[in-house]
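Input.
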Amino acid sequence: MTEYIPIAALNQYAYCSHRCWRMFCLGEFTDNQYTIEGTSLHENVHTTSEIYREETFQVRAIWLKSEQYKLIGKSDLIELESGEIYPVEYKRGHKGEWDNDELQVCAQALCLEEMTGKTISTGYVYYALTHQRQTVELSQDLRQYTIATIGDVNRLIETGAMPQAIYSKRCKGCSLHDQCLPKAIEKVSRYQEE
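Output.
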């Protein structure tokens, strides 16, 4: 089994398994406008701090770890309010059509539950473009999906087997598009079938 899976790998896998393979098996990464904006946002968020905001205690940039799931990652923000703990993940854009951000919040919650012994029912994704928090209900379905994805990512990293590149709308903003060339692979596959 892989030593520890970066929590961010789950988000990448849910977005595109081929992108995850390139990043976490091959070590490939290329910046584009979106990744630079995201890095800039996280540089501000990942400054370790502890503050009280009215009735809410906020801790930024602490490491989360789960022995049970073999996960590790740095939190953007953990909040404690009225005895409840919840993770807040920061993203540069706005709520997309996919569930990869919610999955990342759930993975953080799994780590926090193991670290604190508390059950966490809610988390949030903060979208910088809209300045809005999206509530993430940590349902049983989301938890099962997250745990299944942990298994998928673990197998991907252990085997190093390349998932097929499949072109979709998600490819448009991907910083690894030029390495992947999903449309070209699709055309070659069709040509070979003919």
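Residues 140-159 form the longest helix (20 residues).
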